UniProtKB/TrEMBL annotation:
Quaternary structure note: Oligomeric complex that consists of at least the alpha, beta, beta', gamma, delta, epsilon and zeta subunits.
Xref: SUPFAM superfamilies: TPR-like
Protein name (database record): Coatomer subunit epsilon
GO CC annotations on file: COPI vesicle coat; Golgi membrane
Source organism (scientific name): Caenorhabditis remanei
């Protein structure tokens, strides 16, 4: 039986958010579960594009769908800095009481917790769920926690479910990127094959650039990041990695300062920007 939602999900996993939105807006079905799943990825794509106000406007606060409620909470977390502390407390309580009702809700809870540098809580959020997206979230979280061996174990389980799935391939590439030096280039091959198969995306080019940095091919990293910025000039992760590449390629200080200024302007609530600003303030206090 054909998977009607494959393209929508796949575009989302690859970071091709506008394509995901385009496919979702064309999608038609009489099946309520399919329509709801379509909405989940549609609204997550809007959030990823910095348009969290759309799901906040369109998903009722009283929705009975655990998945859509989780999407709405994530949209509020991204859209309303004043609500972050309250949302974090709610999620931590849900994790502690094992009150997360669906895999999507668990993945989004882990996303919020990871963005808040609470990786142990993030892992607990998805620990009870065994689908590919939950396992991919576990892999990302374990790598963030510097627990690569455990991440490899999760990747093996993903491969047993479907080794050709996009999420399995991306998880394989991620753990390979942070493996033995001689194997790191294998991750580049995986990302390149996916780009050839599904088309280049901002996310794929950024991950290729990260691997290029790890293999000390700084010129290739810069070229890939320039291509990624042409696709999305405001992507926070691409801007941060562009800043790193600029420093590694001995670019003028003006280039680095311009990227920092753009990050501060476009993403004032991003964890990297908050950390950088706090360090700037601390330095200023020491100097004074």
């Amino acid at each position: 039986m054909a998977d009607k939602l494959f393209s929508i999900r796949n575009y989302f996993f690859l970071g091709s958010y506008q394509s995901c939105i385009g496919e979702a807006l064309k999608f038609q079905s009489k099946n309520e579960e399919e329509k709801q799943e379509k909405d989940v990825y549609l609204y997550r794509a809007y959030i990823a594009q910095g348009q969290a106000f759309i799901p906040l406007k369109e998903i009722p606060a009283t929705t009975k769908s655990a998945d859509l409620a989780a999407v709405r909470r994530y949209a509020e977390f991204r859209n309303n800095p004043a609500a972050k502390k309250k949302i974090l407390a709610e999620i931590q309580e849900d994790v502690a009481s094992k009150n997360i009702k669906s895999e999507i809700a668990a993945v989004l809870a882990a996303t919020i917790l990871n963005e808040s540098n609470l990786s142990e809580d993030a892992f607990r959020a998805v620990s009870r769920f065994d689908g590919l997206e939950a396992r991919a979230s576990k892999v990302f979280t374990l790598i963030k926690m510097n627990k690569r061996k455990l991440a490899i174990g999760e990747v093996k389980k993903m491969n047993q479910i479907d080794e050709d799935a996009t999420l399995s391939q991306l998880a394989n590439a991620l753990v390979t990127s942070f493996g033995a030096a001689g194997k790191v280039k294998d991750a580049l091959y995986i990302y390149s094959e996916m780009a050839d198969k599904y088309g280049r995306t901002t996310d794929l080019e950024m991950h290729q650039a990260v691997v290029s940095v790890l293999t000390q091919d700084y010129a290739a990293a810069e070229e890939l990041l320039e291509a990624a910025l042409e696709r999305d000039s405001k992507d926070a992760d691409v801007l941060i990695n562009s800043l790193v590449a600029a420093q590694l390629n001995d670019k003028d200080d003006e280039v680095v300062e311009r990227l920092i200024s753009q990050l501060k302007h476009e993403h004032p609530n991003h964890p990297w920007v908050i950390d950088y600003t706090n360090k700037e303030d601390e330095f200023d206090r020491i100097v004074v």
